[in-house]
Structures are given as structure tokens and as C-alpha cells.
Amino acid sequence: MKIFYTKSVLKDFEKLKDKKLKSKIKNVLMNIKQAENLQDIQGLKKMSGHPAAYRVRIGDYRLALYFEGEVVEIARFLKRSDIYKVFP
User: Fold this and answer.
1) Contacting residues for 53 by C-beta, under 8 A, at least 6 apart
2) 3-state helix, strand, coil in the chain (%, to 5)
3) Which pTM was predicted?
4) Nearest alpha carbon to residue 3 among 57, 54, 48
5) What are the C-alpha distances in Å from 48 to residues 15, 80, 87, 88?
6) Using an 8 Å Cβ cutoff, are 1 and 33 in contact?
7) Residue 79: how many CB atoms within 10 A of its CB?
8) Superfamily of domain 2-86
9) What is the pLDDT of residues 42-73, one digit of tens each?
């Protein structure tokens, strides 16, 4: 799978200070890169109301992404209370 990052998710990553959380994010991103299809990604759930929107739970945070064909676009990474205000 090809992975693309939006500018907003890169800003979200820069704001993080917690090293354990960064390690978990790295593991999830490696899992996404190695996956051959959606079923191989651990913790992935489809978002209702949008045909290509998905999310991955990482503690109190959510990694929001869009999946179309073989392309994964990582859109946002925010706390659970904030993510659903801006995604999808």
C-alpha cells in the first residue's frame, strides 16, 4: 500500500511530546505499510457516513485515514474528544 500524509497530520505529530505514544504510532504505521489489504490492519474500524473513512484507536487518540484502492491517506491524529469534530 502507498501511504500519503496530509499537512495537518504532520502538524499533529509534531505537537506530540510522549515518546511511548510516538512508538505506538510508529508501530501502527508500520502495520499499515506491511498490510496487503484492510483486514490485515489491526484495530481498523470503518467510519459511518463516509465510504472511504477509517480510524485506528491508539489509547485516547485516534488515527484518521482514508482508503481508496491501494492508496492510504493519513488525515489526522487527535484525541478522541476532538477527532470526530474534524473528521471525516
Assistant:
1) 46, 47, 64, 65, 66, 87, 88
2) 40, 35, 25
3) 0.89
4) 54
5) 28, 16, 11, 9
6) yes
7) 10
8) RelE-like (3.30.2310.20)
9) 999 999 989 999 999 999 999 999 998 889 99
